[in-house]
Design a protein that fits this description.
This protein is mainly α. It is 63% helix and 3% strand. Strands 1-2 form a two-stranded parallel sheet. Helix 1 packs across helix 2 and helix 6 crosses helix 7. The N terminus is likely disordered.
Length: 156
């Protein structure tokens, strides 16, 4: 994705998401990396995340459950976490579809009401996805994404 595509998105969150993906050895930055970046140092959305028990540790746990369940669906039993670790990356990861779509959804929200996309807009864009790792992680954890989005909108 080109830098100008990020003009209305909180750059600090984008930088942290790239770091999350790099640390995970991921080939691409995905929505879960954006979510972890926001949860690591929430600026605006901290109270809403707290209300739903969504600190960084909780989200890491939710994503771990999602990974285990996805592997089980593919017929892969419990695997030592060390074996799931990717080879450390030496280059910057690319942009995955889930991250691009989340940014686009969040940017549309920001443009509708303001000139700039807020952290709340980006989080809403992440949570509005119907398919993917983040929606599955929230479903497995029993966290209502729609309720989180509604609360974000109330606080806007």
């Amino acid at each position: 994705m080109a830098e100008q595509d990020f003009a209305h998105v909180a750059r600090r969150t984008i930088v942290r998401a790239v770091e999350e993906a790099t640390d995970a050895g991921a080939l691409a930055v995905e929505a879960e990396h954006l979510l972890l970046a926001i949860a690591s140092e929430p600026e605006q959305v901290g109270p809403v995340l707290d209300e739903f028990g969504l600190d960084r540790a909780a989200i890491v746990g939710m994503l771990a459950v999602e990974r285990e369940r996805s592997l089980a669906t593919a017929g892969i039993g419990s695997v030592d976490r060390g074996r799931l670790a990717a080879t450390p990356r030496r280059t910057r990861p690319g942009w995955g579809t889930s991250a691009r779509e989340a940014i686009v959804r969040g940017s549309r929200l920001g443009r509708r009401d303001r000139q700039r996309t807020s952290e709340a807009d980006l989080l809403t864009g992440i949570l509005q996805a119907e398919l993917g790792t983040v929606p599955r992680a929230f479903a497995y954890a029993g966290v209502d994404r729609v309720a989180v989005v509604a609360r974000l909108r109330e606080r806007a």
